[in-house]
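Researcher: Batch entry, complex prediction.
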Amino acid sequence: MDTKLFENPIFRAYIFYGCLLTLKTIGMVFLIAKYRFKKQIFISPEDTKMFLVKENATVTYDDPDIERCRRAHLNDLENIPFFMFVSFFYVLTDPNPIIAINLFRIYTTVRFIYTFVYAVIVVPQPARSISWTIGFWITMYITISTAIHFW
Amino acid sequence: MDTKLFENPIFRAYIFYGCLLTLKTIGMVFLIAKYRFKKQIFISPEDTKMFLVKENATVTYDDPDIERCRRAHLNDLENIPFFMFVSFFYVLTDPNPIIAINLFRIYTTVRFIYTFVYAVIVVPQPARSISWTIGFWITMYITISTAIHFW
Amino acid sequence: MDTKLFENPIFRAYIFYGCLLTLKTIGMVFLIAKYRFKKQIFISPEDTKMFLVKENATVTYDDPDIERCRRAHLNDLENIPFFMFVSFFYVLTDPNPIIAINLFRIYTTVRFIYTFVYAVIVVPQPARSISWTIGFWITMYITISTAIHFW
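Model: Structure tokens for the complex:
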């Protein structure tokens, strides 16, 4: 890519927040693993015979804490890759830098809040709904702006 | 990116259809929410104490309509991000524009059909199999062409 | 994109291994379909009335072989798209070619091993843990390097 794109603050912000979102999403595994080892509940039969796993280890798919983390993780997969995809092309539409960079910032913030209120400390609704909805409409705005630009 | 890529009709079509696929996939939530509110069946316990949710709201994971939509959504996640990834690099292999643009168009069409016959109005098989298979082989063709080009 | 990027061996390796990972992930369907037809266990009621499906076909979500393949597939979705996203921008940070190309090579290899030991022939743990962990830390390294570069 040419040097101009590299010096573009929108492009740099896009990559930086995309990396933060990636760390957050793949980091869900630490939260899930913490519960799995604490509760000795694993995902596959061979895991119960692993090093450091106790004899009472079981395989179940109905533990409320573990399934809650897995639902939060699945919601990330439903939303974040699509946000990152459309945002890349949104950067190429030469948007207003203040709007664009703040959209990336707000999106990243609400996705961190979403995970926190869903899977770390369960905060009553509508905490999760609001954080999800803000992220959803940011993605919608970015997608529609980009689609119109490249029509 | 340089101006030439921007004026490339294959690249523009790629972005446009990628945005349509993104809207379709993230839009699955409207279909699922419609059923959740109509049937008062939610995904997490705290949702049953939300504003606008009735007292008889429950949490179950076996409602046929809701699970059907979720399966259709999961199938999108299994296919569309990979299609969008390889198609980006396929554009860079300088393919025949008529073939490339029509592959994007057909792929987008069959994924909309897939969702429709799976989750909107249940059409007997092989409607879903055929729409899925066309999309699958388009992705295979694009991936293999691109892999050979960049070997 | 300019010609320089096209001739960049890191970029070419990135695309090539990304295509291999895409083929592997979307190819999971063959493994799952093999079990579905062999065991006559399908995902949706309309599938049991399909051409080539026997009369004793059922819909269940607890077959150990099928669910094992679906877990392996879901793990791909949790990891591979994020790896491919951050690796693209990692290529743009102008990394050491020997390190970068080998990271892509090792990542691809361990993801193939992961699928093999999880879903093709069940190898006792820690085979799956080790292959997953190597891939996870490669993604972490790439993501953190890239985030620091574009801060």
